[in-house]
Design goal:
The chain is 51% helix and 2% strand. By secondary structure, the protein is mainly α. The chain has a two-stranded parallel sheet with strand order 1-2. The two termini are 17 Å apart.
Amino acid sequence: MSVQRCSWANMANPRYIDYHDTEWGRPCHDETRLFEMLNLEGAQAGLSWETILNKRENYRAAFDGWDAVKIAAYGPDKVAELLANPGIVRNRLKVAATIGNAQAYLRLLEEGGSLDSFLWAYVDGKPIVNNWPSGERPAKTALSDRLSKDLLKRGFKFVGSTIVYAYMQGIGMVDDHDPACVCRAGR
């Protein structure tokens, strides 16, 4: 018997299957992973998620395990090192955005909050389970528009509404698994 997964999950790539089965659409409250995913979704802009997923471990190593304090302090030498690293997407704007996102994240923490509490307040702490027909998910929603604008106001970069909606799916704020998918909420 074959397992029914979402139509988008690339079954030829074991990383994709694992990501689909263990992360995508599943609520995440881990601060480091929330920060990582925000930056990886931004790095994906203009590329495929598979490209980023295949480079994920390289990103973790290059960006000091997603330690925001270290990233926020990166200077020109570290930026040059990152831009020479073939294991990540070597885009100056995306590297600068990651550094800026670390700084914005630390400001959020200084205000007494957390990325977890900030994000999950948008959905009252519970994932939104959508009922889109298979393969017909929107690229963005009114909610991702609001969250995107709030992140931008707080100084985050590469957080347009389409990126933010993909982020919301990735961290489980929304469950957009196909109706017949084995990972769908309530199965």
